[in-house]
Design brief:
about 25% strand, 5-stranded mixed β-sheet, 5 strands
């Protein structure tokens, strides 16, 4: 099964899930860049096949276009924040929303309440994988790419990535 993991960084806005401060609504945030990780799930193993960093002019529109036709899109806060911010500057098709899983909303649903101190990817990865989340190591020839917050919690410990492949 083809999966697309998505994470968005904001140029302007409150923390997406707040830490003791009431965040501004996502409709007032500005998307700065997005990281996409394409992967194949065999039923037993996740294999990363491609990565993409979306930055520069009109990142929200380019993000939605990049997700067009993807079978299943997964993100932490993607429905509660990322797509709400994108919808202020571009159309977010219903067909995309129907193919999207928000891990934050899912965590709240299975717990039957919100996390009082937030539910960040670091805590979620540690609780489920018993290993802290790692961000991709990027070569110096890819300026800015190392700052992309693409979710790599599923990568084996010590894995390194380039723009196109994970080793």
């Amino acid at each position: 099964m083809a999966l697309t993991f998505c994470d968005v960084d904001f140029d302007r806005g409150s923390r997406a899930h707040g830490r003791g401060v009431a965040p501004a609504p996502p409709e007032g945030w500005v998307i700065g860049r997005a990281g996409l990780v394409q992967a194949e799930w065999s039923g037993a193993k996740l294999r990363v096949t491609e990565q993409e960093l979306i930055e520069g002019p009109r990142p929200a529109s380019r993000l939605i276009n990049a997700l067009h036709g993807k079978r299943l899109v997964i993100g932490h806060g993607i429905l509660t924040a990322d797509f709400r911010a994108a919808a202020m500057v571009t159309d977010v098709p219903d067909s995309l929303l129907k193919r999207t899983v928000d891990t934050l909303a899912f965590a709240h649903r299975i717990r039957d309440k919100r996390y009082p101190t937030g539910c960040g990817l670091d805590a979620l990865a540690k609780a489920n994988l018993r290993d802290p989340r790692t961000k991709s190591a990027q070569p110096p020839s890819a300026p800015g790419f190392g700052r992309a917050a693409a979710c790599t919690a599923c990568l084996p410990s010590g894995a390194t990535t380039t723009r196109a492949r994970t080793r």
